[in-house]
Amino acid sequence: MLTRKNTEIIFGGDYFPEQWPQDTWKEDIRLMKQANVNMVSIGIFSWALIQPDENTFTFDWLDKIMDMLAANNIDVCLGTATAAQPNWLTRKYDDILFVRESGEQVPYGSRQTYCVNSPSYRKAIRLLAEKMATHYKGHKALALWHINNEYANKNSMCFCKNCEKAFRGWLQKKYGTIDNLNESWGTVFWSEKYSAWEEINTPRASAGGRNATKLLDYKRFLSESFFTLYLEEYNVIRPITPDVPITSNFEGDWSKFDHYLFRNHLDVVSFNIYPDPGNPDARKWAALRHTMMRSLLGKPFMVMEQAPSQVDWYPVNIPKPPGLMRLWSYQALAHGSDSVMYFQWRASKKGAEKYHSGMVPHFGENSRVFKEISDLGNELKKAKDIVGSTVDSKVAILLDNDSWWAVDNPYGHGTKSLDNEVFWSANGQPFPTVLVSYFGELEYYFNAFYDLNIPVDVIPVDYDFSKYKVIVAPILHMVKPGFKETIENFVKKGGTFITTYFTGVIDESVGVFLDGYIGPLKDVLGVKVEEYNPLPPGGKNAMKMTGTIKGFKKKYGCSIWCDVAHTTSAKTLATFVEGYYTGSPSFTENQFGNGKAYYVATRPDKDFMRDFLSKIADAQGIKISQLPEGVELVTRSGYGRNYGFYLNHSGTKKLVTLPKGKYEDLLTGIAHQGTLNLVKYGVSILRKTK
Ligand code: GLA
Ligand code: ZN
């Protein structure tokens, strides 16, 4: 039933029957049927019950619930139970617990305490995965494997002896000789030269700034370690149950590891999404995350978890008011999810998460939340035609983990060093400004397209660009070999390329491009950057257009950063109006072959973004939908049909003007033409009938 035409939308959630007496299980099944639940995720945290000691595996309770679910036609997304290891294992092997950057080994007493490179942990999960797969092979309920859970959420960085050893091996493979490593890391600086592999330690906070290439290599190494950790289980399970699809439930924070590493080893992408109902921009926040997950495989994905109402880990946890859970569920579907799932089925009575909402709240079935859940579960039957369709984008935003890690904060020190001494830098390292943010810039561009209802994909730099008309690379700080040629080809053929300040500053080994930042992108952009000027907090400059350009105002504000650039072949469309670089280009356009490349030397205000991106969309024949404030439109297409999701995120009713034609609402069966009324939090899925 996974994300294929003519199947149901997947509806359900994490289910922990082990937390409840077996009498409750019967109640659970009854309520699941009532809510039209068709899949539950089980087993995720039950390792200690399945393997009570090193030599014993017991499946009795799990068999029983698997059979009950099968008998009721409820599919199972089966967790491999490896996300929280049992205490006996932790105590027996001293390499299991991860080590913080401070050098402290994390105490046990929670989940995700394992080190990603622990040989004992890896050995134990291979065995457990094998036992699980062999035992449940062919079980009627088994529909999907759920490997581990939220990789790297709490244990993304480890500095233990095993990681150190594995890092040395990784470096040896990458560099071959210690001389190559010294060269790549630039260790002549501050007398850091290494003479043997054994001298290399993990890059824990030191007395001052650390080697930037080493920091990045360590992050790359840990990122790959999470992927090889996944493969430990994947390689065991795949041959035992070749027909059962495999996923891993991602947390959704891509800064912790490079999700693109997983691309060829996932049958379906699944992840968890917890927008804060107190955030006025929650819908944009969510849209970006859905987009990233959809783009990972370019096909429908699964929302594995969302909150039925509030979570328990924001500083203040606001419940979803009536209607909001439904609206955000349809938003997930609009962006390409084929599932609506929750954490968790029944709100816990004990443990760390008892204040987190559940589909069945502590209050029980006669609650607002359960009613909204079961109404939605039943309503979703009407939308089943959307399954398998996806969002077709002509615009792609590039996401490059290396640039992200080089600019933002993988070592987690914020503006402070470990001993709390204030360190004026973005990542515990000397840096031009803490105000610049790689992901913040990406989000800024994404939101600008969102405001015009233009669908985008978010893709890596080494992807196939041929289906896109516009490629946007916000702060592409690192430019890797091959990218120059790819993007030049793309533009030559008529594509539009947009990039920003602080782009093309470093190469793969974190060495600065000399003879002008922008580096290898000089030709396609027709500019060179000589210096940069980070602006003080709250500081502004302005971009003055060099002439009257249709669709643009005369002047726009800008902030955060100004590159001081020179054009070579590009046309200057706007200049800065303040500072010693007054008159230097703030916005340029370069004709390159049949296409155009734009360079934005600063962070422009929103009105510029709207005007600029509208112009780009117009020129490339990309449709902009003007809708009332707070209304989102996303279109899914597939199997020859289009489904327009109209989502009213605002607190008031809205009147939408529809494009020409006759439409039918999948949820109500009502025909629409000309206009569409949306109540507060209202949703319509329109399919064209004529
Ligand atoms: C994550 C985890 C779940 C649960 C929820 C609570 O998504 O995967 O096990 O802890 O958070 O929001
Ligand atoms: Zn470790």
Key features of this structure:
single chain; 690 residues; alpha/beta; TIM Barrel; Rossmann fold; Immunoglobulin-like; 3 domains; eleven-stranded mixed beta sheet; eight-stranded parallel beta sheet; 16 helices; 28% helix; 21% strand; binds alpha-D-galactopyranose; binds zinc ion
Please give a structural write-up.
The protein starts with 9 loop residues before the first strand and ends with a strand. It contains 16 helices and 24 strands. The chain has helices spanning 22-34, 47-50, 60-71, 87-92, 119-136, 161-175, 178-185, 212-240, 282-297, 324-334, 368-379, 401-407, 438-451, 483-492, 522-525, 606-619; strands spanning 10-14, 39-42, 75-79, 142-147, 246-250, 270-272, 302-305, 339-342, 395-398, 456-459, 470-473, 496-500, 527-534, 540-545, 555-567, 571-576, 585-592, 595-600, 602-604, 631-638, 641-648, 654-665, 671-678, 683-688. The strands form 3 sheets. Strands 9, 10, 11, 12, 13, 14, 15, 16, 17, 18 and 19 form an 11-stranded mixed beta sheet that branches. Strands 7-6-5-4-3-2-1-8 form an 8-stranded parallel beta sheet. By secondary structure, the chain is α/β, with parallel strands linked by helices. β20 and β21 (641-648) form a beta hairpin. The chain folds into 3 domains: 10-96 and 113-155 and 226-385, Glycosidases (TIM Barrel); 395-619, Rossmann fold (3-Layer(aba) Sandwich), CATH 3.40.50; 631-688, Golgi alpha-mannosidase II (Immunoglobulin-like). α9 (282-297) crosses α13. The model is unreliable at 412-426 (pLDDT under 50). The protein binds alpha-D-galactopyranose (GLA) and zinc ion. Zinc ion (ZN) is lined by residues 98-99, 115, 117, 158, 160, 162-163.
